[in-house]
Amino acid sequence: MREPAHIARAKELIMGIADSLAHDEPLRQCLLTATPVRRLLADK
Q1: Rounded to whole angstroms, what are the CA distances from 34 to 1, 2, 37, 39, 40?
Q2: What is the spatial distance between Cα 21 and Cα 5, in angstroms, rounded to a whole number?
Q3: What pTM value is reported for the model?
Q4: pLDDT in tens, 14-39
């Protein structure tokens, strides 16, 4: 099943922000481990 466009766009934006930060940047880890973000990214 294809995910709705707004969910796909949200994932793109979140990963764009995360990828703009260094991999060892604490803010990147904080963003990617935030509960709403983890739920969104884990949702297949």
Answers
A1: 26, 24, 5, 9, 10
A2: 25
A3: 0.83
A4: 999 999 999 999 999 999 999 999 99
Q: How distant is the alpha carbon of residue 25 from its chain centre?
A: 15
Instruction: Write down the pLDDT at residue 3.
Output: 76
Helix (H) and strand (E) counts in the chain: 3, 0
Q: Residue 38 contacts by C-beta under 8 Å, 6 or more apart in sequence?
A: 32
Place of tokens 């990147």: 28
- CA atoms within 13 A of residue 38's CA, in its CB half-sphere: 5
